[in-house]
Design a protein that fits this description.
This protein has 292 residues and is an alpha+beta fold. Helix content is 22%, strand content 42%. The protein is built from 5 helices and 18 strands. The longest helix is centred in the N-terminal third of the chain and has 29 residues, at 2-30. The structure holds 2-acetamido-2-deoxy-beta-D-glucopyranose (NAG) (7 copies). Pfam families: Ig_2 (PF13895).
Length: 292
């Protein structure tokens, strides 16, 4: 019995110490040791000039109360202080773009953004006393002035024999930043050594026209069913995706088609009655006549 009672007593003592440490954990939580956390910024990577942008700053206050949220692009342009009335204050040229009634402690809405608003945006969140925890996060946003129109594709000529060089230009209307241009031939990306870029800056708004030059030597396997499908793809982030396309023909010397190509062997079987068939039979008739 004695032994049993002493076990009971130690079990009780154990439970007491455990609840004491639990209380300690609770106290730490209440007094704000676990405060402001999980701060993150959510802004678009790229937007078109003239549009409205939502920028979000997420955070978990936990036991803290909010003191301020400040937004910077270089200098401060937005501040939210819940203790003040009104809680929103804006500063400078960017501050004038803030849509106040759609902005709050988590969000800033900017209207009519311009290319010079491209850059690094920072959000700074501070907890109130006694902790005054402050966390700063940042993100980068491009404001693009999109090309006004589709790319234009110019190719030297329309027919090519194997071994010829296809020369052409793809011109994308001016924008900022300049568009990325890539080429595909019959669906296959063109080796970059065949491409050259010329960026022409025009005007004082740093607008750039992109001219991509193609200089591609054709090979036996370049053609697909006697055709070269040339595509110029122009992109500005996910905001502008346009293509220009041209279909070039393979130029085959007529003699080659008479002498031992597939077409002439089809003729033998008599299953095909194409204009070429009549042409070739006429030629054969002429040859036979001359031989006689
Ligand atoms: C932070 O956020 C993530 C995902 O939203 C969540 O899983 C995690 O529990 C959060 N952490 C804290 C400390 O709140
Ligand atoms: C901005 O947020 C508002 C409200 O949440 C939404 O209706 C709108 O579509 C958003 N705009 C953009 C560009 O994401
Ligand atoms: C915000 O204010 C503008 C006028 O300044 C008003 O036209 C618009 O409806 C308001 N939007 C909201 C969401 O309250
Ligand atoms: C940005 O460009 C606009 C014109 O598009 C101009 O009014 C504004 O002052 C410029 N802002 C800065 C910070 O350069
Ligand atoms: C492509 O552009 C360059 C430079 O503007 C020019 O010299 C060349 O003739 C152009 N080629 C074609 C096929 O238009
Ligand atoms: C492109 O072509 C050049 C020469 O024809 C070759 O050296 C290079 O490896 C090629 N690059 C690719 C990515 O195929
Ligand atoms: C062009 O392509 C590069 C590499 O993929 C990318 O980093 C850049 O953002 C693109 N620029 C535009 C304007 O789309």
């Amino acid at each position: 019995m004695k032994v049993y009672r002493s076990i009971m007593r130690s079990a009780v003592r154990y439970r007491e110490t455990r609840s004491a440490s639990l209380l300690c954990v609770l106290l730490i939580a209440v007094t704000g040791v676990r405060g402001l956390s999980n701060v993150s910024i959510d802004i678009p990577l790229a937007v078109a000039a003239g549009t409205t942008v939502n920028m979000t700053c997420r955070y978990d206050l936990q036991s803290d109360t909010l003191y301020t949220v400040k937004w910077y692009k270089g200098s401060e342009f937005f501040r939210y202080v819940p203790k003040e009335l009104p809680p929103i204050a804006v500063f400078g040229e960017l501050g004038a773009k803030v849509v106040r009634n759609r902005s709050d402690e988590h969000r800033v809405v900017l209207k009519d953004v311009q290319p010079n608003h491209t850059g690094k945006y920072r959000c700074e969140v501070s907890g109130d006393s006694p902790s005054f925890n402050t966390v700063m996060v940042s993100g980068y946003m491009h404001v693009a002035s999109l090309p006004n129109g589709r790319p234009q594709l110019r190719i030297e000529k329309m027919r090519y024999a194997v071994g010829d060089t296809v020369r052409g230009n793809c011109t994308v209307p001016s924008g900022n930043p300049p568009a990325n241009v890539t080429w595909t031939v019959n669906g296959t990306p063109v080796n970059s050594s065949s491409i050259k870029f010329i960026n022409e800056a025009i005007g004082d708004h740093q607008q750039h026209t992109t001219v991509a030059e193609l200089d591609l030597e054709t090979m036996q396997d370049s053609f697909s069913n006697g055709r070269l499908q040339i595509l110029c793809h122009a992109n500005v982030f996910h905001l502008y995706k346009e293509t220009a396309e041209v279909s070039l023909k393979e130029e085959r010397p007529r003699l080659a088609s008479v002498l031992g190509t597939r077409e002439s062997s089809y003729i033998g079987s008599g299953t095909k009655c194409t204009p070429e068939y009549f042409y070739i039979t006429a030629m054969t008739a002429l040859l036979l006549c001359n031989l006689r």
